[in-house]
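Quick illustration, no need to memorize.
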Amino acid sequence: MYVDRVPNRNSPPAVLLRESSRDGGKIIKHTLANLSHWPEAQIDSLRRVLKGDTFPDSSSPLLVTRSLPHGHVAAVLGALRSLGLDQIVSPTASRQRDLVCAMIVARILQPSSKLATARGLGLDTASSSLGELLNLSRADEDDLYDAMDWLIGRQSNIESQLAAKRLANGSLVLYDLTSSYFEGRHCPLATFGHSRDERSGNPQIVFGLLTDVQGCPVAVEVFAGNTADPNTVKKQIDRLGKRLGLERVILVGDRGTLTSARLRDDLKTQTAIDWITALRAPQIQSLAAGGGPLQMSLFDKTDLAEIHHADYPGERLIACRNPLLAEERARKRKELLEATEKALHTVLAATKRPKRAFRGKEKITLRVGKVLGKYKMAKHFLCQFEADSFTFKRIQSSIDREANLDGIYVIRTNVAVALASAEDAVRYYKELSTVERAFRSMKSVDLKVRPIHHRTENRVRAHVLLCMLAYYVEWHMRRTLAPMLFDDADPAAGEALRSSIVAPAQRSPQAKQKARTKRTADDMPVHSFHTLLEDLRTIALNTVTMGEHTFECSTAPTPLQQKAFDLLKVPHSR
């Protein structure tokens, strides 16, 4: 006799007590009883009896010999597998694939060095059940490094599969870059350049991220730290066509990346790639100068207007004015002007003090230049230098000229009206904020791509790729778990509240309710993504001994924890 589970279409499986016999070469099953109504524990006890297992004496003490944090591992590893990311990394199961999956999961749970990650997997130093679930309890940091070398050789294939899932011909592709400071001097990619982290004393790397319109990552590329943003565009164009297999896309990039030179030299020769970007401040000022097409009267009745100019043949220019942005820019400029004047007065006072006065035209010029560079206000001040002093004053005409265009930005695109209205083009450009959100998550908030210590180019590239894959998992988890998080679970409702596409984005009433009450719609506590993982961490995988018998059991989840696993559609037990 044995216990058999029989699938039952959309209903729970039938649990039957059966025995089998052989009639010639044919096996015949006989159903003796239907056990579907039995409790699971009772079914399991019967199964063990039929297998001949013995039960420990009830008088034997029950000891928990080890307890490993498990629930957060089950949630993230289960989500990774349900997304099929392990199959994307490699369709064939292997130790290398398991090591890569372990590094992706560890990046979300507890981002740290590869040495610390290896210790967290170890049998004697485990910080969670991750090493045990993936049978990696004997892995060390050299195994992780070997797995990174193995992974980087698969990057092209991985990104092609991600693009096939998230992109299609004619779809929107968002592209942006950031930098991250580097520890050490041995990697050729680590060079000095413009630091977005305000760590000018450290070498850095630059990396660019390609995402779909919703901000889900599909590809990442690492460049040397002194690479200018526009110089990366040509490589991304080649990648979209050759590596990702897309015949036609709309590339969206910011004004610092898709510059006029890149549009002229790299994109206008590409018939398969349309683009959306924005004009820089000097270009906007030239449109407004001398009675040009950009005049404030355009915004008397609307905050958006499409204009044309001979300098941009065959292109569309969509001028937008946001009053809230205008107020913010005016406030910031006022504060910067006042801070600059205060610092300049300090330098001026140093040249006039009776003791140890600050002297020398060259020294004074350097000190003043440092002040103007710090606040980026050199364009608004006229300074005249003498041998032992200097004078300064505001250039009011420059300040007024800039103030007249406060709150105005101009979208530039070659996308046909039939494919994107003026409102659509503005909306697509604003979606670049989702890439910035990804950078914020990867660099500091969640995945902590920095600091970077690896010595070889391939290891650095593999490290950034691991962070991108971890963000891919986190992005999907956040959307699935949004009803339990402060994240907006109904962004469409917030979009409907917007007066226009130029106006600031709105959160949905449901999201505002969660933020105000700190409770979900079903009256559970609202979490951030990481506090929810901390909550799930309290589900432990316990090793229990009773007499001569040893077995594993996991902590029963709370209703809130069970809801998280239900939303993710993954089990909490091993």
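The chain has a mean pLDDT of 89.
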